[in-house]
Amino acid sequence: MTRRKFIKACFAAAGLTALGGCSRTWANGTPGQGNVPGISRGSSGQRPSYLALEASGELERRERALWAKMENCDLCPRRCYVNRMAGEKGACSVADTFRVASTRVGFGEERLIVGRGGTGEIFFSNCNLLCIFCQNWTNAHRGDGRPTTPTELASMMRLLQFGGAININLITPTHLTPHIVTALRLAIAQGLSIPLIYNTSGYETLEVMQLLDGIIDIYQPDFKFQDSNIAIRFLNGAPNYTEYTATAIKEMHRQVGLLREANGTAYRGLLVRHLVLPENLAGTDTFVRWVVSELGVDTHVNIMAQFWPAFQSRYFPPLDRRLIPGEFEQAMRWAREAGLHNFH
Fold first, then answer.
1. What are phi and psi of 265, to 5 degrees?
2. Residues spanned by the domain of 53
3. What is the phi-psi region of residue 89: left when phi exceeds 0, alpha when psi lies from -120 to 50, beta otherwise?
4. Tell me, what CATH number does 252's domain have?
């Protein structure tokens, strides 16, 4: 199936011929979006930027550009160049169809991300990075999950909003950006109006990040390693991890800036995550200095201590053990000494 026929089939399944033809309006008079009673724009009251892109027709153009990449796939830095639309699979093991591992309104994320209503988590199956210490390896490596269509994904987004979620949290989305944007356009027609979070490993291309400009409200990337020569051993041979991730995060910051909140809830901005590893394998001291230098001292950073030797870690010392207390305490000292103000 060609990408054009695939997209048309998604809209036909949802009972739509074109999103631009929708004549309903929001209460504030904005044309071209569905108006579903009882749905608000989230606790911040801010209007997600993707609504303006859809109204102008630009979101449809971005959708087509992302699907075009599937025919010679370069959606991520691995650049497998396989024709996923013809059923071929690269490192992520996903062709043109996809799976969702789970959805829920969750409260386990950062305070500003969950707010009072919870974050609408959508966990996608498979992954483009494939860490050997992955704590969700049954989903990311093995691909456990339910086969899903963009039409069904749109319904998931809408139902999470109905369920009180203050945002839609797209977890491990990199290899499925075309499917997500198609689903987003369908969900907009059904009344979706809360921020989108792009919750990623950070291993992204600049080209795809630029196509997501104005679509994503909150970026939540990991920055796992500060040395690509170290990273490649633990990331299934992913080339130049540090360079690609640094470039991607700087582009995210250019698009959305510092994390902004209203009523205790983030509605736009960047939050960077970093997992402390045994023997400073992740280069935490270098990471915090990089954040200050490239993004600024007010950048929101979550420095995480929850490493444990999951999946294949036992075969890769020093990842065959948990952190000792002194290692995480040292990470906190490095963050303070670097001058970070908003680290958790």
1. -130, 130
2. 3-343
3. beta
4. 3.20.20.70
Nearest to 143 by CA among 159, 163, 128, 127: 127
| Residue indicated by tokens 């102008």 | 56
Counted domains in the chain: 1
Residues 195, 268 contacting (CB under 8 angstroms): yes
| Pure H helices in 235-282 | 241-256
Reading the block at residue 33, the tokens are 């979006």
Per-residue pLDDT of 54-80, as tens digits, reads 999 999 999 999 999 999 999 999 999
178 residue type, one letter: P
Tokens of residue 164, six digits: 């009180």
Instruction: Report the number of secondary-structure helices (H) and strands (E) in the chain.
Output: 12, 10
At residue 325, the pLDDT reads 86
Spell out the alpha helix ranges (H) of the chain.
3-13, 50-56, 58-69, 111-114, 137-140, 150-162, 177-189, 206-211, 228-234, 241-256, 284-294, 325-338
Instruction: Answer whether residue 44 shows pLDDT above 70.
Output: no
Report which DSSP code applies to 206: H
- What pLDDT shows up at residue 154? 98
CB 133 within 8 A of CB 311: yes
Q: What is the identity of the amino acid at 76? A: C
The DSSP H or E segment spanning 200 is strand 196-200
